[in-house]
């Protein structure tokens, strides 16, 4: 850029004062200032646009790399799953021989049991304590509502 010091600015101001005159100098200075501001904003906008386009190109390259990596992972998972399925079919070959002789594939539901919810009741205390000990010690084994508990332990009225 042009190196403009204080002495050069004073020389330019003195020449402008002589050439333009003292009456028009403030208006010309304002106009020059606004034009310089517009030029600076235009240059900044062009720089920002160039930076955005460069970043967009980088993001496109990165997106392509990620998509290719995802395809590779998907292919490896599919090949692993097909290998596992082949191994399972080979290992179940003796087990499902009767069903394959009938013309159907081996039924995997007989090998893997269906999910069954454990049916836990969070209100009851569960521990590795025998039931006879719980009964002897008076530990609750069944949940009771508050009203039922009050009715159970309410003192009996004598008639």
From TrEMBL:
Its membrane topology: Single-pass membrane protein
Xref: InterPro entries: TatA/B/E, TatB
Family: Belongs to the TatB family.
Organism superkingdom: Bacteria
High-level lineage: Bacteria, Pseudomonadati, Pseudomonadota, Betaproteobacteria, Burkholderiales
Gene3D superfamilies tied to this protein: 1.20.5.3310
Subunit structure: The Tat system comprises two distinct complexes: a TatABC complex, containing multiple copies of TatA, TatB and TatC subunits, and a separate TatA complex, containing only TatA subunits. Substrates initially bind to the TatABC complex, which probably triggers association of the separate TatA complex to form the active translocon.
Predominant cellular place of this UniProt entry's protein: membrane
GO terms of biological process kind: protein transport by the Tat complex
GO cellular component entries: TAT protein transport complex
Entry keyword annotation includes Transferase: no
Gene: tatB
Gene Ontology molecular functions: protein transmembrane transporter activity
Species this chain originates from: Alicycliphilus denitrificans (strain DSM 14773 / CIP 107495 / K601)
UniProt KW keywords: Cell inner membrane, Cell membrane, Membrane, Protein transport, Translocation, Transmembrane, Transmembrane helix, Transport
Ranges that cross the membrane: none
Name the UniProt record assigns to this protein: Sec-independent protein translocase protein TatB
NCBIfam families: tatB (TIGR01410)
Compartment(s) of residence: Cell inner membrane; Membrane
Main function: Part of the twin-arginine translocation (Tat) system that transports large folded proteins containing a characteristic twin-arginine motif in their signal peptide across membranes. Together with TatC, TatB is part of a receptor directly interacting with Tat signal peptides. TatB may form an oligomeric binding site that transiently accommodates folded Tat precursor proteins before their translocation.
Name of one Pfam family that matches: TatA_B_E
